Amino acid sequence: MFKNKRLLILGILLSFIVLLGSCKSKFEKLRASNDITKKYQEALRLYNNKYYSKALILFEDLAQRYRGRAEAEELYYYYAYTNFKMKDYTTSRYHFKVFAETYPNSSRAEECRFMSAKCYYLESPVYSLDQQNTVKAIDALQLFINLYPRSERVAEASKLIDDLRNKLETKSYANAKLFLDIGDYKASIIAFKNSMRDFPDTKYAEEMDLLIMKAQYLFAKNSFETKQEDRFNEAIQLYADFVNKYPSSKHLKEAEQLKKNSEVGIIDVQKVLAQEELKEKSKEDKKEDRQPEAKVLAVEGVKEKNKKK
What we know:
Strand content: under 5%
Number of helices: 12
CATH class of the domain at 183-302: Mainly Alpha
CATH architecture of the domain at 183-302: Alpha Horseshoe
Order of helices and strands: HHHHHHHHHHHH
Largest sheet: none
CATH topology of the domain at 183-302: Serine Threonine Protein Phosphatase 5, Tetratricopeptide repeat
């Protein structure tokens, strides 16, 4: 009985393998045939049933054969979408763009122009990486809005642009903060200010104003003593601006501490500079005290020479 059961299972497996082989040979047979109508129908069936890899093989073969025919427009449309469904956004972006430029009067031209721009959006990496595709995506989506201002897709295009700009905003903030973290305080101040200039409505505005104050304090603290007082005073002025701009900020306590530290820094550096000044004055006084003695010795030396003569 056990032996019969094993034979039954083996028979089922063999049947399944034969069935798979026949299916594969059927597809390969169709692929090698010259029946482009049947091949196109099968490509559409595969596409609609989400067998995109097989559909792509047939669409690629048909693309050359349908060139110049009325069916070429629809075929190329599905060809671009098949690449998109397979998440090959670089290839699909190119084909969507070519479709829009090749068939500008097509009812699908607007859609393909939008999809080409959307592929850039989908290729935009996380904010910590290079944002070249993000910038290209914004340009492509803005071009779509300019070309089709009344399109129902304008709202989605605008939302995608907002998402991309938020990514650039976060990138700009992160880069500025990196300068602060590695101790390049002057570069950090410049970067934070540039970020706020480029993104005037940034969600990081309050935090960046605080970090500019912090960077200014650290910049002053690590400067030559002769420049510290002026730079500490700049930090204190930034505190006044911060309190005026954000009277209810959750960062007020930290800002107050930076102001106090700056005031202490001014007092400390004034003491150091005063001591240095006293040392210099003492050196000058000693130098002046030695000058009359030197003159007397010089005169006596001359007299002694004259006696010898």
